[in-house]
Amino acid sequence: MNVANVDTKFEQNSVNLTDNVYQVVSTYLKTNKQSSFSSLYSMLLNEVEPPLLQALMEHTGFNQSKTALLLGLSRSTTRKKLQQYFGDRYFPQTTLDDEA
């Protein structure tokens, strides 16, 4: 399921996330009537978590602690999810000069 590819028109002034998610999932299911779904929940989480993390990291100025606080997760869980989806993208690279 690639939510980004689902052609859904949202109300321009809509801020209701629940309605938006419902519309996207409903459209996806209607578009893929012939598909068999075995792990829709995990598939949905794998599609939603990365852009959620990315948006919050950008919103917080790439502050992992603030992102964790907004998510209601521990910082270590947030770091694990960032690593899972983005590798080292949100982790500062240290050099030998930094360690000295």
Overall description:
- This protein starts with 16 loop residues before the first helix and ends with a helix.
- 59% of the residues lie in helices and 0% in strands.
- It has 2 domains: 1-37, no CATH class; 38-93, Arc Repressor Mutant, subunit A, CATH 1.10.10.60.
- The chain has 100 residues and is an all-alpha fold.
- It is elongated.
- Helix 2 packs across helix 3 (64-71) and helix 3 (64-71) packs across helix 4.
- The protein has helices at residues 17-31, 40-59, 64-71, 75-86, 96-99.
Order of helices and strands: HHHHH
Unreliable stretches covering 5 or more consecutive residues: 3-11
Number of domains: 2
Look at the helices and sheets and give the structural class.
mainly alpha
Q: What is the helical fraction, as a range of percent? A: 55-70%
Q: Compute the gyration radius: what is it?
A: 17 Å
Please give the CATH class of the largest domain: Mainly Alpha
Cα-to-Cα separation, first versus last residue: 47 Å
Question: What would the average pLDDT be, to the nearest integer?
Answer: 83
Strand coverage percent: under 5%
Outline, from the CA principal axes? elongated
CATH architecture of the largest domain: Orthogonal Bundle
Described by strand count, sense and barrel closure, the largest sheet is:
none
CATH superfamily of the largest domain: Homeodomain-like
Count of extended strands = 0
Discrete helix count: 5
The CATH topology label of the largest domain is: Arc Repressor Mutant, subunit A
Name the quaternary structure: single chain
